[in-house]
Amino acid sequence: MTDRCESRGVVVGRLAPSPTGALHLGNARTFLLGWLSVRARGGLLTCRIEDLDGPRIKQGAADQALEDLAWLGLDWDGEVTCQSARLSRYQAALDHLVQRELAYPCVCTRSEIERAQSAPQDVLDHGTRYPGTCDGKFDSAEAAKSATGRDPAWRFRVQPGEIVFDDSLHGSLHIDVAADAGDFVVAKKDGQPAYQLAVVIDDADFEVTEVLRGDDLLSSTPRQILLYRALGLQAPAWAHVPLIVGPDGRRLAKRHGDTRLASLRDEGVDPQAIVGYLAWTAGLLDAPRALPVAALLDGFDLSRVVTEQTVFDSDEFLRMM
Q1: CA-CA distance, 220 to 250, in Å (whole number)?
Q2: How far is the C-alpha of 91 from the C-alpha of 96, rounded, in Å?
Q3: Which residues contact 309 (CB under 8 A, 6 or more apart)?
Q4: pLDDT tens-digit map of 192-223
Q5: How many helices (H) does the chain have, and how many strands (E)?
Q6: What is the DSSP letter of 295?
């Protein structure tokens, strides 16, 4: 797969906060690394708000996220876009998949899918493999609704075989989406586009050449590659960085203490101290020290980033601040 960085001569990255909650230290480190990776090569950064998960959207969270990023010293190029303003673009992509019979309506519930499993599945993203129950059953969304009384979702029809791709931190990966997850959702029952479809369209439309995100989204990559191919789009380069987790091994959250950037900002914490702490946990500094983000640009290389998760120690963090 050709890297568009080479063909276009410019690196384009993106910052994509979701307004489902406040940004915390874990989010901040991922955004910091994404910013450094692009800016160190003189590239451009787009910024979008991923606000499609309606029930989970928190009022004011989008503006707060942008303020938090700016507080850390992370900037972007151009206007901020919102996914909620691009619904017609996602619908056009879905229509294309449906017309080519690459997507089909599905009325299965989560419990029905789980009951259909003959044995526990070892799925990459700890989900349940879809067994293809509705594949070929309905010729339209209207037919599915008429036959079952349910509003259907739309699933992308996955062909057997491994997807092979390179990741800047994980190397060459081989993942069989058909075996691991089966046909996956590209549009929800309420008509909203699913994450997999929306981010592919966004990144392609804004000519993103590098997607850097947390490694909890690694399993999304082969699915998105399938969508890039089906839509005739060029895929970006990939980099999945480790998360900051709590002592219990779970991703950073309220149960691990208040690590929200807004709270730290309100407490008067120096943002450069946060930058230095995050850079240290990522393996970019030998010891934590306060410094501006620009000071990390010289000699930055993703190969220096640690590949294991960082276990957050609240007492240690407070001492450093």
Answers
A1: 19
A2: 9
A3: 242, 243, 244, 245, 249
A4: 999 999 999 999 999 999 999 999 999 999 99
A5: 12, 12
A6: G
In Å, how far are 5, 6, 12, 205 from 9, measured between CA atoms?
5, 5, 10, 17
CA–CA dist 239, 200 (Å, integer): 15
Upper half-sphere CA count for residue 41 (Cβ side, 13 Å): 19
CA distance 288 to 298: 17
Sheet of strand 103-106: strand arrangement: 103-106, 153-156, 184-187
Structure tokens at 15: 């910052």
Q: Which residues pair with 105 in a beta bridge?
A: 154
pLDDT confidence tier of residue 319, bands split at 50, 70 and 90: confident
| Residue-range domains of the chain with CATH | 4-83+242-320 (3.40.50.620), 87-195 (3.90.800.10)
